[in-house]
Structure formats: structure tokens, C-alpha cells
């Protein structure tokens, strides 16, 4: 019987057993797609990553990302966590990574910068692989039903509920306050109905809710539900955070802007996460969106296959 090694990390946190859990298979050579999916299902984390040699030798690695039910083209915390794991290794498929990595993924090429001090990698910053995509609008009744909230718990002062993406699509809506956000509970039947009404070719209907507070205007509190992917709630969703940051800055009247937004997530789950999103807007167009955060090693071991 053969084995494959794994490492787990907690992403978007500097505290072990907080943030978002990720399992990384640093060398997935020889694993079939079906076996990758089975391993991801076995872990039960929101995502598991599988690292393979790059198709283009100028890049660092090819990274495949699986939820418990399907493969996704891009995600935030899996890229940050995978970069952290590989950055702490001496070599990646025989190459020293230095401070910059490039991951080949289904959504495109993901540029990564390792973060740390005194030669120790403590986290990573990634650049979203796709431009901001907006639409369609999602009716408020669908959002409220999915989150078990009242329609008047939602606000559309800045934007209506809408699907947005910088590599992986999410339906996003603003909630009037943190108290209402904390009351949200996913209704699986409503998600199934929403999935029929607003279908996606590459994934199922997922919902990213957020609220702002007057005390911290530069920080957003968020929650993400994807029960159709067997992710009842996600402690930290970098891809949704990146899309939200890009979308909010696209709505600003200024043609040029450099904005840094901190998104706090996972509080209701007891796994507080802090996601930093950087957005660069030039001549009315979002040019670059980055996501960064800390990571902490948690476990390592072997899987019998």
C-alpha cells in the first residue's frame, strides 16, 4: 500500500486553530482526479489543494483545488496556504522558490508573493487571476430565504444583491448590521431553489454576506455559506473577499484609487480570520486585486492510498 504526505495549515490567522483550515498535498504526482476528490471529501475542509509540476517550466507549480464535492478553478485561502507550505520548503520540484511563486490554475495564472521576516515565511499575498465580472443581479427575496433572514435585514444603499467574481463567482449582499449578519443561518432548500434559478456551469450557488460598522469603516464583517458544496459555513473566503473589494472600489466615483480593505470572517464559528484585500483602480477600471494574510502550520501526516 502506498502513501501520500499532507500538511494542514490555518489560513488568514496568526493563531493556531483559528482561521480557515486547509490541507495541502505538496506532491500529488500519481494521483487521479477521482482520488483527489476522494481525499478532499475525506478531509471535509472547505478546500484541499494538490500540487503538481507546472506545465510551463517558468512557473512554480500547477495547483488543483477541490471542495468536498467538486474541483474549483480558483480560491483565495487555498492559494495563500499552499504558498505558505511551499515557501517553507527548501525546494519545489527541485527549484528554490525565492520570494515569488506562480501557480497554474484552471482560472489562470496566480501570482504569489511570500510574506515574512528574518527569512521565515509567515504568510502570502496573491493576485486574483481574472478581471472583475459583475452580474446577474440576485433578487432580495432569494438572498433572504437562503440566509433565513427578513428582506428588510438586507440593504441596497450601495448596490443590489449581485453575483461577482475575480476567478470564482459568489452571490453577494450587504446586511444592515452585524447583529443581523450574526443571525443568518443557511436554508438548504432555499439554496437548491436559488441554484436552479441562478445556475452556474462551474459551481453551485453560494452566498457571501457582509456588514459594515461605523466604528471601523475600513473593516468589513462577513460570512459565507455554500451548503450545496457541503460547506455549511466557511471561516475565511479569500476569493469572495477579493471580488467584494474590487466591486466596492469599482462603485467609488473616483476614477483612480488605491484601497486596502480588511475583512473579518469566521467569528460566529469561533475561527476568526482577517483577510487583507488590496485594490488598484486606474481610469475607472480595476487593474489589480490582491489578497493577503498570515498562516500557521497545524498538522502533517500520511494518507494511505
TrEMBL record:
<dbReference type="GO" id="GO:0016853">
    <property type="term" value="F:isomerase activity"/>
</dbReference>
<dbReference type="GO" id="GO:0005737">
    <property type="term" value="C:cytoplasm"/>
</dbReference>
<protein>
    <recommendedName>
        <fullName>PhzF family phenazine biosynthesis protein</fullName>
    </recommendedName>
</protein>
<feature type="active site">
    <location>
        <position position="47"/>
    </location>
</feature>
<comment type="similarity">
    <text>Belongs to the PhzF family.</text>
</comment>
<dbReference type="InterPro" id="IPR003719">
    <property type="entry name" value="Phenazine_PhzF-like"/>
</dbReference>
<dbReference type="Pfam" id="PF02567">
    <property type="entry name" value="PhzC-PhzF"/>
</dbReference>
Amino acid at each position: 500500500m502506498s502513501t501520500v504526505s499532507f500538511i494542514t495549515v490555518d489560513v488568514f490567522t496568526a493563531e493556531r486553530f483559528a482561521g480557515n483550515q486547509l490541507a495541502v498535498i505538496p506532491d500529488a504526482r500519481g494521483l487521479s482526479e477521482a482520488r483527489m476528490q476522494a481525499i478532499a471529501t475525506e478531509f471535509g475542509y472547505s478546500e484541499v489543494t494538490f500540487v503538481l509540476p507546472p506545465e510551463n517550466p517558468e512557473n512554480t507549480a500547477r495547483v488543483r483545488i477541490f471542495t468536498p464535492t467538486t474541483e474549483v478553478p480558483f480560491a483565495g485561502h487555498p492559494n495563500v496556504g499552499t504558498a505558505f507550505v511551499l515557501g517553507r520548503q527548501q525546494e519545489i520540484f527541485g527549484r528554490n522558490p525565492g520570494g515569488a511563486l506562480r501557480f497554474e490554475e484552471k482560472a489562470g495564472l496566480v501570482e504569489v508573493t511570500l510574506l515574512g521576516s528574518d527569512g521565515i515565511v509567515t504568510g502570502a499575498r496573491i493576485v486574483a487571476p481574472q478581471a472583475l465580472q459583475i452580474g446577474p443581479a440576485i433578487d432580495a427575496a432569494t438572498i433572504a430565504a437562503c440566509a433565513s433572514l427578513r428582506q428588510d435585514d438586507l440593504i441596497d444603499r450601495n448596490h443590489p444583491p449581485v453575483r461577482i467574481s475575480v476567478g470564482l463567482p459568489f452571490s453577494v449582499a450587504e446586511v444592515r448590521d452585524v447583529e443581523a449578519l450574526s443571525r443568518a443561518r443557511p436554508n438548504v432548500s432555499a439554496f437548491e431553489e436559488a441554484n436552479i434559478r441562478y445556475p452556474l456551469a462551474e459551481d453551485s450557488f453560494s452566498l457571501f454576506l457582509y456588514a459594515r460598522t461605523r466604528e471601523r469603516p475600513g473593516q468589513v464583517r462577513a460570512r459565507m455559506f455554500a451548503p450545496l458544496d457541503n460547506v455549511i459555513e466557511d471561516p475565511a473566503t479569500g476569493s469572495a473577499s477579493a471580488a467584494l473589494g474590487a466591486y466596492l472600489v469599482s462603485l467609488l466615483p473616483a476614477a483612480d484609487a488605491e484601497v486596502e480593505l480588511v475583512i473579518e470572517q469566521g467569528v460566529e464559528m469561533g475561527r476568526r480570520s482577517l483577510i487583507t484585500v488590496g485594490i488598484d483602480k486606474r481610469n475607472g477600471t480595476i487593474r489589480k486585486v490582491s489578497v493577503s494574510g498570515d498562516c500557521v502550520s497545524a498538522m502533517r501526516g500520511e494518507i494511505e492510498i
